[in-house]
UniProtKB/TrEMBL annotation:
Gene3D superfamilies: 3.90.1150.170. GO terms for biological process: carboxylic acid metabolic process. Belongs to the group II decarboxylase family. This is Black. GO terms for molecular function: carboxy-lyase activity; pyridoxal phosphate binding. Pfam families: Pyridoxal_deC. InterPro entries: PyrdxlP-dep_de-COase, PyrdxlP-dep_Trfase. GO terms for cellular component: cytoplasm. Its cofactor is pyridoxal 5'-phosphate. The keyword Lyase applies. SUPFAM superfamilies: PLP-dependent transferases. Keywords: Decarboxylase, Lyase, Pyridoxal phosphate. It comes from Medioppia subpectinata.
Amino acid sequence: DKFYDASYDSGDKSIQCGRKSDTLKLWLQLKAYGRSGMESVVNNVYDMAKYITEKLKQRSGFKLVLDEFESNLISFWFIPPKMRTIGESLAPEVLSKVAPLIKKQMMANGSLMIGYQPLSTKQLPNFFRLSLTCFPEPNHKDMDYIIDEIERLGNDIEL
């Protein structure tokens, strides 16, 4: 089903798809940055996760899925202004439509690419799932942009 020469596609050569090449990339990063360099990059990701978590707590319209996060994955909802008066009685099926609408605008504008998903085992409607990565190294300006852009794209949503 590939439209290219698949003989060099490592994804077809093992059960875990591209894991072998991921290991090579990690090894090359360790060689290039060294142990302390990689430690610094990973620490930065955790610092940025703490930073954006605090910013989301302070910004009206954003609600965290959990009060605290222990990793580089931050999950949250954006509640548009016209839906905030409903408060806690906001129907999950209505809230579940917000993230997909914002994501559609993100993709159309080419401004961000953040995933969303529900957690049906906990009866949680679609929420944004921000996964912070080491490269390129995120900074405060990036985190502020993410929040501002989601807010900008979601402010006019009416359901």
